[in-house]
DNA sequence: AACGGGTGCAACCGCGAATCC
DNA sequence: GGGATTCGCGGTTGCACCCGT
C-alpha cells in the first residue's frame, strides 16, 4: 500500500514551465490566493499537478523573490547558519529575504560546499579537516585509528583532489607552529617537517602523534596508503598539499573548538528565539535576527576568518 | 565545428508533519 | 480518534548552457 499520488500522472504535464503557464498561474493566484494547491491547476486551466504549481510559485513566480547572484553578506549568513542548523534550508532561507530554500540549497551545493572544502574546511562539520583527523586520533584506540581515518580520508579525497588541482598551496607561506600552548590533552600543536613529509601533533604532555603525509599517515607502526599515488616531481600530492595547507589553518584545535562551540550556542539560541517569535505571529521581516547576524558577521564562518579573505580567484591555479 | 565534461538551476520525488473531515 | 488529504521539506535528477580540447 503506497502513498496516494498527489495527482493522476497521465494527464499532467511535467518539465519546464512555459511563459503562458506562468502567466496563468500567476494571474490566478493574484486573484484567488494560494488556498488549495490541488484545485489551483484545475481552476487556472493548467495541466499540472498542485505540487508542481506550488513549487513553481514558491521558487520562481512569487513577486517578492530576489533573482540573481548571492551577495557576500548572504553567503556569510548561509555558511554561518548552516554551521548551526545543518541542511535545514527553509530555516536558513528564512534569514534571507527573497531567497527560497531551493535557492539556498542549490547555492550551497554548487558553490559554498566546494569553497569550504577548498579552504580545508569540512562543509558538514565546519571544522578544518585537520581538526577532524586529530579528533580521530584522540578518541579512538590506535588499532582503530588507521582504518577509520583512512575511510574518512577516502570521503574527503575526491573533493580535495578536485579542488586542490585548482590551488597549489605554497608550503613556505604557511606557519604551522602555534604560539599558544597549554596542557589540555585535546589541545596540541601541529608542526610539519617538510623534508621528512611528516606532520607532528604535539599534545604538550609527552604524547606525540605522527602523520606521514608523503607516504600515508601513520599512527605508531600502522600506516595507510593515502596519498601515495598523486605525487609529482618532489612537490606534495594534491591530497598531501591539502594536509599541509589546512595544517596551517589552525594550530590550536581545542581552543578553536571552544570558540566555535560558544558561537554555535549563541546562534542556536538566536534561531530558537526567532522560531518562537515566528510562532507567535511576530516573525515579520526578521529584522531583529538580521541585526544580530550583522553583529556576528565578523565571525561568520566560525573558523579563522582569514580563511575567508581568500578571493574566489585565489582558488584558480593555472599551473596544475 | 564537433564533442565531452563541468556547472548551475529548475523541477521532481518521497517522506513526515499538519490539517481536515 | 483515525483515516484521508494537503503541505512543506530535503534530497536527487534532468537538462540547458558554457568552456576547453
From TrEMBL:
Superkingdom in the source lineage: Eukaryota
Myb-like domain sequence ranges: 9-61, 62-112
InterPro entries: Homeodomain-like_sf (IPR009057), Myb_dom (IPR017930), Myb_TF_plants (IPR015495), SANT/Myb (IPR001005)
Residue ranges of coiled coil: none
One Pfam family in the UniProt entry: Myb_DNA-binding
HTH myb-type domain ranges (all copies): 9-65, 66-116
Keyword terms of this UniProt record: Developmental protein, DNA-binding, Nucleus, Repeat, Transcription, Transcription regulation
Biased composition (Basic and acidic residues): 262-271
GO CC terms in record: nucleus
GO terms of molecular function: DNA binding
Region (Disordered): 221-243, 262-285
A Gene Ontology BP annotation from the UniProt entry: pollen development
Location relative to the cell: Nucleus
SUPFAM superfamilies the UniProt entry points to: Homeodomain-like
Name of the featured protein: MYB80
Protein source organism: Brassica napus (Rape)
